[in-house]
Specification:
Elements lengths: L4 H25 L4 E9 L5 E9 L4 H10 L1 H11 L7 E6 L7
Parallel strand pairs: 2-3
Antiparallel strand pairs: 1-2
Length: 102
């Protein structure tokens, strides 16, 4: 029997972080920037999660990257308060280039 727990945790993180990240970025940058969490991937041991995101407008992507990287522990703490998990994985944010014309 296959263990689909990592997939379930990935989906839960993606949905929960989508709301958290957008409101956090709006508050911190005080600009109109759209950050979209497009995918989350959790290791089999549930210790690390890679969070893939896009930024619009793309000229704000470096500022958003710095903010997300410096705030990953804060997001992990917020997740630990919101989710009923024994241990929340460490978060690694990875920017994905949007498709041209999208």
């Amino acid at each position: 029997m296959s263990n689909n727990r990592p997939e379930k945790v990935s989906e839960l993180l993606k949905n929960t972080l989508s709301q958290m990240v957008q409101s956090f970025i709006e508050e911190e940058l005080d600009k109109q920037v759209l950050v979209t969490i497009i995918r989350a991937s959790v290791d089999k041991d549930l210790k690390e999660a890679k969070i893939y995101y896009t930024v619009y407008p793309s000229d704000e992507s470096e500022e958003v990257k710095k903010l997300l990287d410096s705030s990953s522990k804060h997001f992990r703490y917020l997740l630990s308060k919101k989710l009923t998990m024994f241990s929340v994985p460490t978060l690694k944010f990875l920017r994905v280039e949007p498709l041209n014309g999208a």
